[in-house]
Amino acid sequence: MRRMRRHIWSGAGAALLLLGLTTACGSDSGTAQATCATAPNGTPLSADTGSGPTSTNLSLNPEIATGYRTGMKPVHTNTFAVSTANPVATEAACTVLRDGGTAADALIVAQTVLGLVEPQATGIGGGAFLLYYDATTKQIDAYDGRETAPQAATQDYLRWISDTDRTTPQPTARASGRSIGTPGVLRLLELEHNDHGRQPWRDLFAPAISMADQGFEIGPRLASQIADSAADLARDENSRNYFLRADGTAKPAGTTLTNPAIGKVLSAIATDGPDAFYKGAVAADIVDTIATGSGGRTPGFTSLADLAAYQAKKRTVVCSPYRTHEICGMPNPSSGGLTVEATMGILSNFDLSAMKPADSTGDSDAARNGGKPTAAAVHLISEAERLAYADRDKYIADSDFIPLPGNSPQALLNPDYLKQRAKLIDPNHSMGTAQPGDFGPVPLGTGPQQPEHGTSHISIVDKYGNAASMTTTVESAFGAFHMVDGIVLNNQLTDFSAEPLDKAGVPVANRIGPGKRPRSSMAPTLVFDRAADGSRGPLTYVTGSPGGGVIIQFVVKTLVALLDWGLDPQQAVSMVDFGAANSPVTGLGGEHPAIDTSDHGDHDPLVQQLRRLGHQVSVDPQSSGLSALVRDGNGWTGGADPRREGVVLGDTH
Which of the chain's termini has less CB crowding within 10 Å, N or C? Predict the structure, then answer.
């Protein structure tokens, strides 16, 4: 058999009982309406996992691939919906919405629970980007909770230990203290809750505190990642004791974890706010952990002042037209919004509706899985992405330090400019590697793309019409492998270019600097209808994904599937993952049942066609964690990525 099947629902019911929730919330007041059911159609979810977890090329598959759930169906809700990458977190957040909370309230519950059940991807030791739509004011707030470099960081901070010891940080830059940025997610949550919260701050930490103290089971995806990262986790005493058994092997799925240390931290944050994290004993523990360099690790230079001074920022959302819609995304220091919108702007010059995937209609499993994209579509979209990534790699960084061309995102999104970029696409042959656009004498070199690895995504709409799309991360799987007070610390600074100069000696935009925020690919996205006069209409789509530097490709694929091909949200996220950064390699997700991966895809007709067009095709499994919520009349329809454990829940019939 090509793939084996296994359940990925292990431990969810037990954890939900600890939260004081039930695995099916039941009907409301005797009506037929059920809320917060644990799975679509009331059934457990299962995953196609192959013969086991597979580690692949990080540039294509940032997190470990754990399979594919075939034939998933969209979930229809009446007034509110939530999707996260883990059913326990989804259930907890859904209950907040059921009880009258806003999307801002539910975000806090989802984030803190995800930090327990998905510590390889997210937690309060990391950062996040959030788009929040306020239905009353019709305004979109963009929140930047990206980590910052310490004030003591030099441009060579990631290159070598010191000017007199020019050896690389040990054991690697990623696993050393040099990679750890000042965490930002708690300050982001504080800011958005002050603006949009309805329920008391302290109450929103209760579910995670209960789970941390009473225990929860390791799910299969976390277990696979622990096994894959065991050697690195073993270098840190706290990580080793938490994730590994006494003999150094990974704790398996079904093992009950308790984390009273983080329960204590969360209790303090619930009572005293984020100052309990950024100041005092917890801050001192974080600084000491980064600075000790235990186990032969090179220490970092984060100080108490760095933590105390951290601020989340409200940025100006980046929006641009796409056919009859308006796409809104996160501005820099994330490159996600700009690069997604630049790609879509290039694609607006082509008739994508004529390139709908084969076998995407009907009620077969193939249709529910989104069908199979055509070679023409994969070629065109990948070429547009190459052009957009070329500009991203050269120009986009933290604009508090490095201005964009024209000192505005609109230079990269100008329709006339993107029309000229579109003309560079040859329908008969791949360009391989694109050149960035010419914006005059901009003194910037082109730095290499740095991948992100450990990331998660949350999509929420509440009954008041508010919506949140938040992507949250600790960077690589388990961050820097440093654990303190039950918290996994990020390795976000490796998103900077370690080399501050390009080969010609020109400074690169994404070089490290004191207080600077590293470039990200996170792309939380909101889409609105456009009125005939071009003004913004109602919110119609909420989407986003984890996946490192590939996030942009995952989101573009989903937007095209929704806006050009008319697929439902489950089909859109289930469809084959495909796309390209600015390299000759085009990814075609081999975890999808429509792709024949035997002999590196040599026998798959789509792979064959793409190779004839000059693409170097990789069929490595992808690990997107997409979610999509689509307005459906007065309600919502949602889809969750079959490649992870996520579900969509809400007030369903």
Answer: N
Task: Report the amino acid identity of residue 90.
Answer: T
- Beta-bridged to residue 148, according to DSSP, are 182
Active site residues: 455
CB 578 within 8 A of CB 618: no
Q: How far apart are CA 188 and CA 183, in angstroms?
A: 10
Cα gap 568→562, rounded to integer Å: 7
Tell the burial category of 314 from Cβ atoms under 10 Å away from its Cβ (0-12, 13-18, 19+): middle
24 token code pair: 């099916």
Q: What are phi and psi of 148, to 5 degrees?
A: -120, 155
pTM score of the predicted model:
0.92
Question: CB-based contacts of 157: which residues, under 8 Å, 6+ apart?
Answer: 149, 178, 301, 493, 512
Helices (H), strands (E): how many in the chain?
Answer: 20, 23
182 contacts: CB under 8 Å, gap ≥ 6: 147, 148, 149, 150, 302, 306, 307, 310
Residue boundaries of the structural domains of the chain: 5-312+455-513+628-652
Alpha-carbon span 76 to 68, nearest angstrom: 22
- Where do we find the tokens 């950024």? 278
> What one-character-per-residue DSSP string does 533-592 give?
TS-EEEEEEEEE---GGGHHHHHHHHHHHHHTS---HHHHHHSPPEE--SSSEEEE-TTS
Give the strand pairing for 616-618 and 585-588.
Answer: parallel
Per run of 10 residues, the mean pLDDT along the chain (length 653 residues) is 29 41 31 44 30 28 77 96 96 97 98 97 97 98 98 96 94 95 98 98 98 96 95 95 97 97 98 98 98 88 98 98 98 97 98 96 94 98 98 94 93 97 98 94 64 79 98 95 97 93 90 96 97 93 95 98 98 98 97 97 98 98 95 94 96 78
Return the structure tokens found at 381: 């979209």
Residue with tokens 């919506």: 467
The amino acid that residue 61 corresponds to is N
DSSP assigned state of 282: H
28 CB neighbour count, 10 Å cutoff: 12
Q: Is 478 in contact with 225 (CB distance < 8 Å)?
A: yes
Q: From edge to edge, which strands make up the β-sheet containing 616-618? A: 578-579, 585-588, 616-618
Integer Cα distance of 316 and 243 in angstroms? 40
Encoded amino acid at 382, one letter? S
DSSP 515: T
Q: In one letter, which amino acid is 301?
A: F
Residue 224: other Cβ atoms inside 10 A: 25
Q: Kindly report the number of other CB atoms within 10 A of residue 427's CB atom.
A: 10
CA atoms of 612 and 290, how far apart (whole Å): 50
Provide the 3-class DSSP secondary structure of residue 475: strand
CB proximity list for 535: less than 8 A, separation 6 or greater: none
